[in-house]
Structures are given as C-alpha cells and as structure tokens.
Design brief:
heterodimer; A: 204 residues; alpha/beta; globular; B: 47 residues; alpha+beta; 2 helices; 30% helix
Chain lengths: 204, 47
C-alpha cells in the first residue's frame, strides 16, 4: 500500500481539520466523538493499568484518544530521552516520565494549542519537571539528530498525509541503537482513492 | 507501515499487539468493513 498522500487531498485542510477535531477533544473530552477517550477506555481496550492512570491528573487522562499501548513493548531506559509524537494532553508523556525517572527527559510534540496547554498543566500538577512540550509538525521536529533513545506515539502518525517524511524525521532524531515503539491504526484492505481522499475518515 | 519503515532504514520492524480500538464507537461498522484496528509496532535503528 502506498504511504503517499492521495493527489487530490488538500494536506493543509487535513492538518487544519485534525487540529480542529483535537482542539474540540481538549476543550470537551466528554463530548460526542466517533472515537473513544479517557482512562477507562485505555484500561478496558488497550491494557493500561487503570490504578496508575488514576494517579495522573484528569486534565491529562480525560482527552486520551490513543489506539494502542506503546508501553507493552520494551521498557523505557532509566535516564533516557523519549519523544512522544502527537502527545495530545500528555498522558503517555507522564507515564514515560515516571519510567525514565528524574534524570531522564520526555518531550511531547503536538500541533494543537489547546492540547499543549492541557499537557503543560498536567505535567506541572504531576510534578514531573523532566517533561516538556513543544509545538511542532511531526515532519520537522525541534530535536537534534541522534538525540532520542525511544520514540513513542499513539494513534497519530496515521493522521499525517506525508508518512514518508515523518518516518525520515524519526530516523534522523533516533540514536543509533535507539528505537520506535508506537501504536497506530492499520487497515486490512486496500482503500479506494475516494475513501483515502475523505478527510472525515482521516481525522478520526 | 512495516515496509515503509524498512525502506527508511529501520531494522527488525514488526507489529506486536492488536487492539479493537473502535469497538463500541459509532465507527465500529466502518472499522470492521475496512479491517481497521489499533496495533503496536517496534522498529530499531542499527547501532
């Protein structure tokens, strides 16, 4: 399957729609959306530890809308550097911060102002100063080459119309010997161009 | 996804776990129709 954006998809419109959708989630995480949110969902369908999620600020957990669980693979390195692509309200960043410890660092990357505001508030409330959040496009990360031990992400890369550019950027920032461990959606059938050009289906 | 990561240069790329992320949502039928689900992936950059 091609990872290129369909020719007739307006990439800027898609990014704008994604920002608008997730701004709504940030502002009203209990609103009506066609995808799940919140810690109960994360525990019931994705295998997160609900008791641990309940120790995090609700400002970070309520808008969570991931599709998998990047903590099921290898343990994050104590003292390591982790970046979360599309960090949203920061739930996975806070979990990662606990795992890398106070000598580690976690950088959350997002392009939605309302999510960044929630994420920064949550990190402060959780007293995890090793976390910071940056506004950036995932094709142009504000990180040096080879700066990252582990890249995590949860249901976000599928929203990018230029996945090859995203993967190239991830390859640039990961250290030799480092890794990606991320969750995303997969599609079991080849999609028609009509379906791939439908922005409503992308933004979910 | 796996082929794309391999083409970039990542090694030992694999999907590890699968999730019915859209179960119970209004898009559950669409997800079932197109085989859409969540998955975990790992990919390594050679040392």
């Amino acid at each position: 399957m091609s990872i290129a954006c369909p020719v007739n998809l307006d990439r800027e419109k898609l990014k704008s729609e994604v920002r608008a959708t997730y701004a709504k989630v940030a502002e009203n995480p209990h609103g009506e959306f066609h995808f799940h949110r919140g810690p109960e969902y994360a525990a019931r369908l994705l295998g997160y530890d609900l008791a641990e999620l309940h120790t995090l600020p609700q400002t970070a957990t309520a808008p969570f809308a991931g599709v998998g669980n990047p903590f099921m693979m290898d343990a994050l390195p104590l003292g390591g550097t982790v970046v979360d692509i599309g960090s949203g309200a920061g739930m996975d960043c806070l979990l990662a911060a606990r795992r890398v410890g106070p000598k580690g660092s976690v950088v959350g990357i997002d392009m939605t102002d309302a999510m960044l505001a929630r994420a920064r508030g949550g990190a402060a409330e959780a007293n995890l100063p090793q976390v910071r959040f940056e506004k950036a496009d995932m094709t142009a990360l504000p990180l040096g080459s080879g700066a990252v031990d582990v890249v995590i992400s949860n249901g976000v890369i599928n929203l990018a119309p230029e996945k090859e550019a995203v993967f190239n950027e991830l390859f640039r920032v990961v250290k030799p010997g480092g890794r990606l461990q991320f969750a995303d959606i997969i599609v079991g059938t080849e999609l028609s161009e009509e379906v791939r050009s439908n922005i409503d289906l992308w933004t979910g | 996804m796996i082929e794309a990561l391999q083409q970039i240069g990542f090694r030992d790329v694999r999907a590890c776990h699968y999730f019915n992320s859209f179960s119970g949502t209004t898009k559950e039928g669409v997800a079932r129709k197109y085989g859409v689900q969540g998955a975990n992936f790992v990919a390594y950059k050679a040392a």
